[in-house]
Amino acid sequence: MIRIEDLTFTYPGAEKPSLKKIRLHVEKGDFLAVIGNNGCGKSTLCKTLNGLIPHFISGDMEGHVLIGGEDTQEQQVGSLARKVGYVYQDFENQIVRPTVLDDASFACLNYALEGHEERGRKALSMCGLKEKEGDFIWQLSGGQKHLLALAGALALGPEVLILDEPIAQLDPFHARQTYEILEKLNREYGKTIIVIEHHTEYIARYCKHAILMRDGEILWKLPAREALRQVEDLEESNIFPPQVTLAAYQLKKRGILLENVPLPTTLEEGKEAFSSCRFWPCVGRHQEEKPLGEVMVDLENIRAGYRAVKGESRPIFDGFSLKIRRGEKVALIGSNGAGKSTMMKLMIGLMKPEAGRISLQGQNTRKMSPEEMAKRISMVYQNPEEMFIKDSIEADIAYAMRVRKVPDWRERTEKLLELFHLTGIKDRDGRLLSGGQMRRASLAIGIALNPGILLLDEPTANLDIATRHEIMGTLELLKGITETVVIATHDMQLVCQWADRILVLKDGRLIADGAREEIFADREVERQVGIQPPEIYAMGRALSEKADCYTIEEFIDCFQEMEVNCFQEMEANCFQEMKGEGFGYAGEAV
Fold it and tell me: Model confidence over 343-399: pLDDT tens digits?
């Protein structure tokens, strides 16, 4: 179906090629994952398949890309779009019409295809949106919008579908839904699916093959589960294998898991692999209760929403109340459209409530100027490039301090550059940095005025493992700077590793508020919101209902400590038995 021969591509002005002598063959009906660290060439490779490179994106291209035996350089982008559908990472930019059916059928109308609406309806049905065809697009959730973008590409009837980071901005429920639909398109309709993906647990569950890219080259192509067992290769390329795979790999290195046991990549494989050694369930590490600090944010009986096209208000919150205290590390979770971003906009003053009161450290925000609020609370947006307004990150970090005439703004700028490891790139435009550099720079901008409260919207979205760990390390740096941090995220690993308080939103209501042990043990919350704990938690629970392992380290401890725990259990059981027989603890007659 797809054949790439000796493909090399160099962007204008680049010092080295982004793709180097690529050779690849993709069979019809494959479900292929393209993996690799940020900047390795994944998106560039996929853009050669639908002709954007070299027809729209210029550069030096050598070699050949053949789709169905035809060279993409000899075809027009318009004709290639009917062979290769593409859903981009910023999928909302592909939605151009006001209603669902209108948008799904727009490409067919643009091509003057007969029965364009019927083609759109069929694509919507294939994507699980049949009941939504009369809705306005702003009535859809984020997951539904992503499926609409897929339907728009699918309506043209392409044999190949490419999706760039299809679940990066989706909650766990919509992520599963998206991959189940892709699996159906692959299995029942024979579509060749190519995904650029960092979430390896989905690769293990749904994909047939995977290729690993590094520095513009393809290192290997393997069956998906075999690919995920190449732990050293993946870690060297900053890819995070499934948690069950990493746990088994660590246990093998420590001699606990036998060498001849294949590394598991799914929960089902994990049950079999870990059955060969003794698992002693660890209970959760409950944190010590801290004394309640000062109330930093107080939302009292809030009503807020958005105006629809016809002017009526669509409420998101109605009678909503919440207090956030000094020193708390709060994770805000829930499905797309639950109200997480709206809550942050209300806190920072980008939205005003229709009713109710919002206070920052006891002061009503309606009576505060933007300058006063900026000293108390700051927000780092999901798309960090939105934080950059100057031509260098040094100027961006200094900007708020300089215009507010902070006395030592120059010295503070230098300290922030050093703290976030940005000194060597301080003269570069923030919009041209790597993903991790952008995130670090945006965090430096966010705390420039030393706010007491910091809000972060999806700080680890779209990042590979190295960049994600980099951001986790950066969050640790905030401890001595900003005491109170609120993060809106779908990243359950981040939630379990970092947060001490978790808020769960559903349809503008707070349905759960507590520590991780309370939230993830609540089956009703899981049912209502579709949140999923990290895979390693599910693995522990599959081995023992008493296990509470939220990280790989906690899971491994359940094996490392088994000898001590087994001895303690035997000792306790022996004591109980002897008591029943009329003996004391030391075996003396009672």
Answer: 999 999 988 999 999 999 999 999 998 888 888 999 988 778 888 999 999 999 999
| Residue spans of beta strands (DSSP E) within 148-281 | 160-164, 192-196, 209-214, 217-223
Reduced to 3 states (helix: H, G, I; strand: E, B; else coil), residue 137 is helix
Task: Please report the pLDDT score of residue 139 as a whole number.
Answer: 80
pLDDT in tens, 6-42: 999 999 988 899 999 999 999 999 999 999 987 789 9
Residue 562 predicted with pLDDT over 50:
no
pLDDT of residue 238: 82
CA distances from 444 to 350, 357, 450 (A): 21, 30, 10
Please give the pLDDT value at position 201.
93
Give whole-number Cα distances, 225 to 272, 300, 337, 560, in Å. Answer: 15, 50, 34, 27
Tokens of 96: 């151009």
DSSP 284: P
Query: Which residue in this structure is represented by tokens 């993709």?
Result: 26
If you write DSSP's letter for every residue of 470-538 in order, what string do you get?
HHHHHHHHGGGT-SEEEEE-S-HHHHHHH-SEEEEEETTEEEEEE-HHHHTT-HHHHHHH-----HHHH
Q: Compute, in degrees rounded to 10, the torsion defined by CA atoms 187, 36, 425, 19.
A: -90
Picking from 513, 514, 548, the residue whose alpha carbon sits closest to that of residue 534 is 548
Phi then psi dihedrals of residue 544, to 5 deg:
-160, 135
Q: What are phi and psi for residue 13, nearest 5 degrees?
A: 80, -5
**Do residues 358 and 346 make contact, with C-beta atoms less than 8 angstroms apart?**
yes
Mean pLDDT calculated for residue range 287-302? 83
How is residue 130 written in tokens?
A: 């049949």
User: Whose CA is closest to 493, among 225, 242, 239, 177?
Assistant: 242
Q: What's residue 565's pLDDT?
A: 42
Q: Express each pLDDT in 329-358 by its tens digit.
A: 999 998 877 889 899 999 999 889 999 999
* The dihedral formed by the CA atoms of 61, 64, 70 and 75, expressed in degrees to the nearest 10: 0
